[in-house]
Amino acid sequence: MGVMMQAFHWDCPRVDGKEFAWWQFVRENVPSLAQAGFTALWLPPVHKAASISGASMGYDPYDYYDLGEYDQKGSVKTWFGSRQALQDLLNTAHAHGMAVLADMVINHNSGADDAEVNPITGGSRWTLFQPGSGQFLRGWECFHPCRYETWDDGTFGDMPDLSHRNPRVYGEILKLARWLIEDVGFDGFRYDFVKGYGTWTVTAIQEYRYERAGKPFKPFGVGENWDSARTIENWINEANAWNDNPVSAFDFPLRDMLKALCDAYGFSLRNLATWETFSRNQPLHAVTFVENHDTRDGDKPILRDKLMAYGYILTHEGYPCVFWKDYYNWDLGKEGTPHGIAALVGAHEAFAGGGTEILWMDDDLYTMQRLGDGQKPGLVFALNNRGDRWGGAWVSTKWRNVEFAPVAWWSGADLARPAGQWSAWDGRAQFWAPPRGYVVYVPRV
Question: Are residues 329 and 190 both part of a single domain?
Answer without folding.
Answer: yes
